[in-house]
């Protein structure tokens, strides 16, 4: 006997396959709520070279705009003193975005700047004399000086809600030097409309603070690696030789070293390079940033390889704090060394997992959990002070600006 219901279901599947215009595996059409225009938008500051003397500026337009320029001047100089730097551009195509499949993406690299100096910049077209408003950036200080930076992770879902929180962050911390972002910026890393949305809600932040991102697993989704991520962010090309450029990198800011690792590439392949970065620095503060955490908040996740290949080096060279994402909850460990809790920051490393988006996972109380909670989006502000001794003040804030966690680390001056 033929099962009529089963037969009907098979017929339905066959009919769907015949009438569907999309072959199996072919991307479904999408649209963007934020298409490009003839005017520059989605402006993003990054540092692909020395933060003391350079500034990288990126933006997009419709593909019909073929030339782009950035003007730059010291904040106390007249407009007539601005230097003009030509940008390189590439077209980025995401064919399934029906209403705007192609954008032109510009990258301008300003060099020869003075350390620790406030500048203004604007982007646009020299020929038509169409420019954006003047926007600020400040070069990094040379050597030991106070500064602050921001860390957030997993924007990924609920970008309008994240946008409100991050605009408040900017209002409360206008002088922060840069933002570290812990991966999963978007949900579908190779869907350009996701990035259009991110940059739209990040306007006022990405064009105001330099962004130092790291790759999450979602940046690699639905495509041949993190193609859009690598095109959208110009980053230092000083990573491991055996890893594709810009997937891992390091930079120095003031008296601090930042090492950004790629959690999607086997940790063992980045170990030698990581050791070189940590052993070759005289920085007072050392930080690491990567996506998949060494000490998970999620009950069902673990990253033993990260602890084996990276945390052993964080122990050996005393990394102060590690910033991570991926687990969609907030967790800050006690100071850890050799996978054990130690009694002070002088002996061990704090590991932070944070979530800035609106997707939340539950978490268990682990023995390493000093502070843990979920269903709360946060951003973290880290102040580095040099008055007297060296002091690090870490605070995690929720969307209302309430402090949800804090840590102080003091070090005697070297
Ligand atoms: Fe993730
Ligand atoms: Fe995520």
Descriptive account of the structure:
The protein is 16% helix and 31% strand. The chain is α+β, with helices and mostly antiparallel strands and 414 residues long. The chain folds into two domains: 98 residues, Sandwich (Immunoglobulin-like), CATH 2.60.40; 265 residues, Purple Acid Phosphatase, chain A, domain 2 (4-Layer Sandwich), CATH 3.60.21. A seven-stranded mixed beta sheet has the order 13-14-15-16-20-17-21, covered by helices on one side. Helix 5 packs parallel to helix 6. It is globular. The N and C termini lie far apart (85 Å). The structure holds fe (ii) ion (2 copies). One fe (ii) ion binds next to loops.
Features:
414 residues; alpha+beta; Immunoglobulin-like; Purple Acid Phosphatase, chain A, domain 2; 7-stranded mixed beta sheet; 6-stranded mixed beta sheet; 6 helices; 31% strand; globular; disordered N terminus; binds fe (ii) ion
